[in-house]
Design goal:
about 240 residues, alpha/beta, Rossmann fold, Arc Repressor Mutant, subunit A, 2 domains, five-stranded parallel sheet, four-stranded antiparallel sheet, 8 helices, 11 strands, about 40% helix
């Protein structure tokens, strides 16, 4: 994949790790900026040219990556974020996703895995930008007590606002555009994540759990995001 004109921001305070990430990402063809603090990252993100993806360490010297990601999302910045952390507990993974991150990678990690996930995020970013030039299949959706506006990135259940990451929104849109159809994990990985031949189906399962938590009255007994044994998932409005 050509990475022409694709720009990444690496937010990492460990200088040797930041330098290594910058070198390897530049070898992949990306333009890479480094920020060592959340404050520096915020200043860079205010610039008009923007970034195609952000690699964000959780442990920063001023505020942590969770809080920085929350601030980005609250400000309307939906640049894809992959978090890097030494914390491997399920609770921390959930916290990362709830803060607005699109992906979560535990240190120490294999460089090839990080590069694959970055490629996936920038492919999705390119697809999103190209799709913005034409009208999306669905701009609004309603099911149960949920209301979603895909253009403004706003969602609510009843009177309660729901904060969605860009990836959660993309996954939700794909379900809305394919009501009643059984969607395999491989199809979802390819169409939403832009990943092919990816071995881990847990990525999809984790995000389905997130959608159920957001939109199902009883996530343990879903009405809208249904599992189809041995086949995948089905959305029922």
């Amino acid at each position: 994949m050509s990475a022409d004109e694709l720009k990444l921001l690496v937010v990492e305070d460990e200088e040797h790790l930041a330098a290594g990430l910058k070198l390897n990402l530049e070898l992949e063809g990306y333009e890479v900026d480094i920020a060592g603090t959340a404050r520096e990252a915020g200043e860079r993100l205010l610039k008009p040219d923007g970034y195609d993806a952000i690699v964000l360490d959780v442990m920063l010297p001023d505020i942590d990556g969770f809080e920085l990601c929350k601030k980005l999302r609250r400000s309307g910045n939906y640049t894809p974020v992959i978090m890097l952390t030494a914390r491997s507990s399920a609770e921390d993974r959930v916290k990362g996703l709830e803060s607005g991150a699109d992906d979560y990678l535990v240190k120490p990690f294999e460089l090839d895995e990080l590069l694959a996930r970055v490629r996936s995020m920038v492919r999705r970013r390119r697809w999103e930008r190209s799709s913005e030039e034409s009208l999306p299949t669905s701009t609004r959706a309603r099911f149960g007590e949920a209301q979603i506006d895909f253009e403004s990135h706003e969602a609510s259940v009843g009177d309660t606002r729901v904060e969605l990451t860009r990836l959660e929104l993309d996954l939700l849109r794909y379900f809305v555009d394919n009501p009643g159809r059984v969607l395999s994990r491989d199809e979802l990985l390819e169409q939403v994540w832009k990943l092919r031949n990816y071995s881990s189906a847990r990525t999809v399962d984790n995000f389905i759990s997130r959608l159920r938590k957001h939109f199902e009255p009883d996530p343990s007994n879903p009405r809208h995001f249904l599992s189809v044994r041995g086949a995948g998932y089905k959305f029922v409005p």
